[in-house]
Amino acid sequence: MTDVFSIEKRSWVMSHVRGRETSPEIKVRSLTHRLGYRFRLHRKNLPGKPDLVFPFRKKVIFVHGCFWHGHDCPRGKRTPKTNTGYWIDKIRKNIARDAKSQSELQSLGWNVLVIWECEIKNLDKIACKINEYLSDRCEINRVAGVFLPPLSHAVSSTS
Known about the structure:
By secondary structure, the protein is of the alpha+beta class.
């Protein structure tokens, strides 16, 4: 099957693919913010420039596109019909770079969570995953479709 775009149009489309501010990343950022967590974005002083950085927790979150980072889901397993060698090599290098960045972060004492684009379809599950990762528990209070941070536990006094 040939490409639906001309060579010039395909080149233009590919030149506008972003590495930051992607739709999956924005969804995860918005959800994390609604959960009550505050974070920094794309810290250049950390290996791999993680998408979300929680400095006081020493935790980071990467939001990976399934195709671009070689996930094992159906979308990530797709191989382009044209210039196949180039794309296979590029994705292989992306996977190696991701592994290196994650290893370097862990050696610096950071914890790493990767959220895949295909996982974002289930926001309840992602909210629980983020909450577990950042607070070591999963307590989601859902009110009118808005995720809220866990309520602080009341301290019971024994007399």
